[in-house]
Every structure is written in structure tokens, then in C-alpha cells.
User: Which sequence fits this backbone?
């Protein structure tokens, strides 16, 4: 009898964990991006994408068939007015569009991605000056 009770408890725990894992990824938005863009070091073609929340400040980019593409850590950003429509914000960095912000529908807080911008530097030697990227 104790073995049966232990198996039932184990099975209920397993079902609970599966249910919790399924609810942990919440849809933030669905978007049709008309141009190629980058997230981190990865470049993605124009197309339909979904952004889901994995944890408080960790988001996941998924393709149109719900396939996993990338995970990224964000910082919270806040505005005084709520966003009526969900949106992805891109910046042109080094000739490419880079995903910089994610705003869920009806939210006054969003997610800001950490974007590394190119840095220009100057190096000078005794005989010449070099300017580069």
C-alpha cells in the first residue's frame, strides 16, 4: 500500500512540474518583422516571430513554427503611459537593425536589451596616427 501511495505522490508531483513549466513561458507578443535583424550575435531574416517570457527579465525569441531561436537577458524599462499595441523597437547599429526593446500590449513597463555599440578608437605612435573601429 505504501508503494502505491508513493507512486501516486510521485506521479502527481511530476504532473504538477509539467504544468508549472508550461505556464512559466508567457507570450509577450507576436510580430511580423519586415527586415533582417540581430539579437546578440545572431542575425535573423525578415519574418514572423514570437517573444515569450521565461523568467522575470529573460525573454525567448521563437520562430513562426514556435521553434526556439534565442534567449536574451533584459533590463526593465518604464513609461508613464501604457503601450496600446505591443511593439518591438529596433536601432540601426553598424548598418544592421538590432532589437533593443520589447513592449507588451497594454503595459507601462517593457524590456530593454543590452546592445553593444561599435566603439571608435584612436591609437597614436611616435610617427603616425591610426583611426579604426
Assistant:
Amino acid at each position: 500500500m505504501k508503494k502505491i501511495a508513493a507512486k501516486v505522490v510521485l506521479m502527481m508531483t511530476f504532473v504538477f512540474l509539467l504544468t508549472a513549466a508550461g505556464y512559466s513561458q508567457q507570450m509577450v507578443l507576436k510580430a511580423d518583422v519586415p527586415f533582417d535583424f540581430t539579437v546578440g550575435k545572431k542575425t535573423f531574416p525578415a519574418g514572423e516571430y514570437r517573444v515569450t517570457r521565461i523568467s522575470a527579465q529573460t525573454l525567448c525569441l521563437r520562430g513562426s513554427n514556435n521553434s526556439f531561436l534565442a534567449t536574451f537577458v533584459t533590463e526593465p524599462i518604464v513609461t508613464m503611459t501604457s503601450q496600446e499595441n505591443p511593439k518591438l523597437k529596433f536601432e540601426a547599429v553598424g548598418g544592421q537593425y538590432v532589437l533593443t526593446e520589447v513592449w507588451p500590449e497594454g503595459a507601462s513597463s517593457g524590456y530593454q536589451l543590452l546592445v553593444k555599440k561599435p566603439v571608435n578608437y584612436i591609437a597614436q605612435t611616435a610617427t603616425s596616427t591610426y583611426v579604426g573601429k
Notes: Residues 13-23 have pLDDT under 50 and may be disordered. The radius of gyration is 22 Å.
